[in-house]
Amino acid sequence: MDVNVLGSHASRLVARAGGLHPPPEVLLSWPKPNYVDPEERGWGTPIVLMVFLGISFLVYCARMWARLAISKNTGLDDILVSIAILPLFGLTISTVLGIRIYGFQWHVWDQTRETLVTTREIAMAIELNYMLSTTLVKVSILCFYRRIGDRLTNQFIYWVYGTIVFCIVYGIVFTFAIVFTCTPVVGFFRLFDIAWRLQHELTCRNEGALIVACAAISSVQDFVICMLPILLIWNLKIGKRQKMGLCAIFGLGMITCICGILRTFYATKLYYFTYDITWTAYSGWVWTTLEAQLAVICASGPSLKVFFIRYFGTDTTRVGYSQTGTPSKSFGPSSKTRSVGFDAKISQHSAQQSQCTAGSICDDVPLEGIHINHKLDVKVEERDDCSQVSFASTKALTALPMPTQPGWRGRADWVDGCRTVCAALRPGSRGTSGSRSRTREGDVEAGSAF
């Protein structure tokens, strides 16, 4: 086959008709401008965006209330998502103004001299607010992963740190690239202002390639951030039902991935497959805004558990099993038992579980049979999910009666935030029940609150 013929076929396959600069034949094919009653989009979509903004803000407020007032356990992730709320408002307001007032509600041939400038100004505002808000939310989610990953594998932590660096570098590079798309910068807004162009020299880079690359990389980041905890959870030694539940919680972020893919699709269509850029950009800006709003909602989802337990939960008693197969019971509003596994040797001594009530000492506490090593398999029972620091909110607290117990040489008062009091009995107390009853007072060696 002739090389020239093959080249012509290839050109037709990749030929594109679209972008910011339509050729003369396309301009001549457009209808005459209609400045009286042009075809335009209505208020339906702007109202939807404002509703989602309200939902996002309410979810954010519930998250911060849960962290500040209930669990009293804030972190860097909360600070970052709080900062992200400001550009999220800017993004939503810019999009609503752009698609309803400043030109993106009309076809490109119906634009006025003023809207040819305002559409470019709004486009810059939307892109910058999007970059700032989504980058902060992504880093916030990754910081949350880092908080819950203290006892997890080093490989997971390295992935988290690597993704944080990736998101920060992406945000900085593309923010500067968007701002300096044209030289001088003001030329970005005056791209379609013929009078200004005749008086000023303007140089612009490939805006289409920049925006499409930005959208595509953002979608990849969304997917990686969603998959990180799912892959980790799937390897945990927990029940399949628990795995599916946790994967569903963290998998909510896949909604933002869908929005990111649609944003990439409309960006590609806008710059490479149509010259009616304002009419096509309408859909792209909508998905851009929804992606940022849903990102805040998904980022706040895991933190809302204690909020719903406090205000919508009921007192429940659950009986579960630890990894060793030992039954465990916990009391309180939505109490839970969780096991965290570590790579270490476990003592060969068997630990026998006993149940005590507040103010009493169990008859059978063979504490010398428990050998505690660093990185031992730990079973954590939270007495009250609603508070991690308040002693007053704990329920069914088990403790030794320190002030009245003869032979007790530990503290006689509760330490701030104390949940558990431990005492050790001498090996001699492992005799019969009668001997333990007679020698129990003398066997108490020490106690410490922690």
Description of the molecule:
The chain has 450 residues and is mostly helical. The protein has a domain at 29-310: Rhopdopsin 7-helix transmembrane proteins, CATH 1.20.1070. 53% of the residues lie in helices and 9% in strands. The chain has 13 helices and eight strands. It has helices at 3-14, 24-29, 44-70, 76-100, 113-148, 154-179, 194-199, 207-234, 240-250, 254-272, 277-300, 305-312, 433-443; strands at residues 182-183, 203-204, 315-321, 327-333, 336-340, 378-382, 421-425, 444-449.
Tag the structure with descriptive keywords.
9% strand, 8 strands, 450 residues, Rhodopsin domain-containing protein, 13 helices, single chain, disordered C terminus, Rhopdopsin 7-helix transmembrane proteins, mainly alpha, two-stranded antiparallel ribbon, membrane
Name of the CATH class of the domain at 29-310: Mainly Alpha
Order of helices and strands: HHHHHHEHEHHHHHEEEEEHE
Number of helices: 13
Q: And the CATH topology of the domain at 29-310?
A: Rhopdopsin 7-helix transmembrane proteins
Radius of gyration: 31 Å
CATH 2nd-level architecture of the domain at 29-310: Up-down Bundle
Question: How would you describe the shape?
Answer: elongated
Query: How many E-type strands?
Result: 8
List segments where confidence is low: pLDDT < 50 over at least 5 consecutive residues: 5-15, 314-402, 415-419, 429-450
Please report which band the strand proportion falls in: under 5%, 5-15%, 15-25%, 25-35%, 35-45% or over 45%: 5-15%
Oligomer: single chain
Region (Disordered): 428-450
Subcellular location: Membrane
Protein name: Rhodopsin domain-containing protein
Family: Belongs to the SAT4 family.
